[in-house]
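re: ur question from earlier - yeah i can do the single chain one, its not a big deal. heres the input i used so u can compare w yours
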Amino acid sequence: MSIIGVVSMKGGVGKTSTCANLAAALGAQLGAGRVSTIDLDPQNALHWHFGLVDQDTTGVCEQSLTGGNWRNAMLQSAYQVACLPYGNVSEADREAFEGMLTQSPQWLASQIKAAGWGKEACVVVDTPPGPSVYLKQVFDCADLVLIVLLPDAGSYATIPDMEIWLEDMLAARPKLKVFYLLNQIDRSEALNRDTAAFLRRQLKPRMCPVDIHNDEAVAEALAFQQPVLSYEPHGQASHDFTRLA
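and the output i got, formated as tokens:
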């Protein structure tokens, strides 16, 4: 089994879109029944990308608080990806869930194992931006972590905090693969292009070899509640996500 965590240190960088579209690209390559997504972000937005907004589910938060098996709450999409939403929950339930995660550092790993996806499975996990108990859970069990950045000053400002976090996490798991992924690259804009080049120089040892270009089709696909590979299969972003997968 492969576990991929998609994280960011700030919101608005396209983290959830990246998670969903990467999962769809993996599903297209690996086939039905191989790829699942888990939404650990209380914003509960991941399932929108797969057209699953009208389906009822208890979600990962409620399912975990009641001791249920995650597989009973998985939603099957039309894009060869299963999705476990965070769920619409009260603030009290969210706090109780996060308290449980704090008390059980290996909780995510144990729940994924209990779900019984099998050795051939690929699980892609979305997380809220910034340091959190969710982020720590992902770092404790992931095989690969992608840190999503925009080529702008705001993302650059978050890097020192991310590097401090990485230093602590990699001390416990030195073999964990971690890559920075540049999203919304637009080489026609000088500032965007120059910032991307600067980030590549600064972060060279950990830079993902694939960039995700700025493509309006990504936002349009979300409006139609589907992955960009389905909405515009021959577009630049679809090509990028296929290479990333």
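The mean pLDDT is 94. not sure if urs matches, ping me
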